Amino acid sequence: MSPAATDWFGQPRGLAILFCTEMWEKFSFYGMRALLVYYMTKHLLMPQDAASLTYGAYTAFVYLTPIAGGIIADRWLGRRRAVVLGGSIMAAGHFMMAFETLFFPALGVIALGNGLFLPSLPSQIEDLYAPADARRASAYNIYYVGVNLGAFLAPLGCGYLGETYGWHWGFGAAGIGMVTGLIVYLAGSRYLPAERVRDKAEPTSDRAAGDAVRGRFAVLIAVMAAVVIFRTSYEQVGNTVALWIDQGVDRSIGDATIPMTWFQSLNPLLVFVLTPLLILWWRTRDTGASHSTARRMARGATIVAGAYLLLVLVSLGAVGDARASWLWLALFFAILTAGELHILPVGLGLFGRLAPAGFAATAIATWFFAGFAGNLLAGLFGTLWSRVEPALFFGGAALLAAFSAALLTALDGMVSRAEASRDINWRMR
């Protein structure tokens, strides 16, 4: 019986396994990320600009190593072995974070393990479905909910332990999350697809096959470049926005104060709320030209620009040492999340669909390269936080997101043609 022969909740069982594995991996990643800037500035006493560069470099290399990891998985290890080996290395790195003297080596170990893990897990989604299976359209959005379930739980668990009992307790909890994800993956491996091989329906001549692969990757690289600009803006959420939450937001509810790390759970919580609403909207209203992938992604970048413009207005409205109400922060996250759902899971799905046969993990790794360059630039951009007023900084973030939207709109024709060509190849199988 094939992995897709029986379903859970209307989807292949393998999607649930990948969903839960990714959930626990993201619990470990976002749990550590929720603590990282605070740990560096409050415990290691790093200057803000140095902490921003360290944060940006780490989150960047987390998305750089999948380029090599995807090639290794496709050519030698196979995606299943890459997930297990990469996850084991990441777990070791998270446990190393519990020791102050191992701080920088631990960051490097996590990034290396992530290189094998990150492209190898989602690249298995496409092979769970038959070519004509309509469920593929929503598979990546469902998978993205798993990503955000882990991201939602992480600040509540790891963040609470880190703020209350000590930073190292939070880092240790992140390591336990990674181990749990590996257990889920191994236990459910019988529901996952077999390793994908190069499709015989691809052009038979070496030159034609090479042209087809290069053509698809040219489209993917162009989209990736636009997403790099978007991520430079978007990734401020875990960096300078986190600092603004600490310095410029009134977190009180009556006599109680909301822990600053808990606000990092707002974004994934809103993913749960908004994802089914957006899927329903796309199915019933988002048709014709507005349905095109590049236009949908451009719309998302525009919405994120609007979220940062809200912070510009809130910052301009603050007088003296007055802090902004946390309700404005909640509204910012609601708008930001609506934009994010139009671009990040949609882009991941695009790279999965356009992946040439035999290059699944490599194509997904190309998508994550946008995370490398975007996070590196986000760290550099974040160094301006301590040099300019918040309103000016958030205005710059809004401009970056708007520029990304313009680039994605310009790429609409190229992306639509590539997707149409891919659909013709599927029908010929």
Question: What is this structure, in a nutshell?
Answer:
This protein has 429 residues and is mainly α. It has helices at residues 13-43, 48-77, 79-96, 103-120, 136-165, 167-187, 206-234, 240-248, 266-284, 293-317, 326-353, 360-382, 390-410, 412-427; strands at 7-8, 11-12, 249-250, 252-253, 256-257, 324-325. It contains 14 helices and six strands.
Order of helices and strands: EEHHHHHHHHEEEHHEHHHH
Shape: globular
Structure classification: mainly alpha
Low-confidence stretches: 1-5, 198-205
Residue-averaged pLDDT: 85
Strand fraction:
under 5%
Distance between the termini: 21 Å
Provide the number of structural domains.
Answer: 1
CATH-level-4 superfamily name = MFS general substrate transporter like domains
Largest β-sheet summary: 2 strands, antiparallel
Name the assembly state. Answer: single chain
Folded structure, characterized:
The chain has 429 residues and is mostly helical. It has one domain (12-196, 205-427): Growth Hormone, Chain: A, CATH 1.20.1250. It contains 14 helices and 6 strands. It has helices spanning 13-43, 48-77, 79-96, 103-120, 136-165, 167-187, 206-234, 240-248, 266-284, 293-317, 326-353, 360-382, 390-410, 412-427; strands spanning 7-8, 11-12, 249-250, 252-253, 256-257, 324-325. It has a two-stranded antiparallel ribbon with strand order 1-2. Strands 3-6 form a two-stranded parallel ribbon. Strands 4-5 form a two-stranded antiparallel ribbon. Strand 1 (7-8) and strand 2 form a beta hairpin. Helix 5 runs antiparallel to helix 9. The longest helix has 31 residues, at 13-43. The model is unreliable at 1-5 and 198-205 (pLDDT under 50).
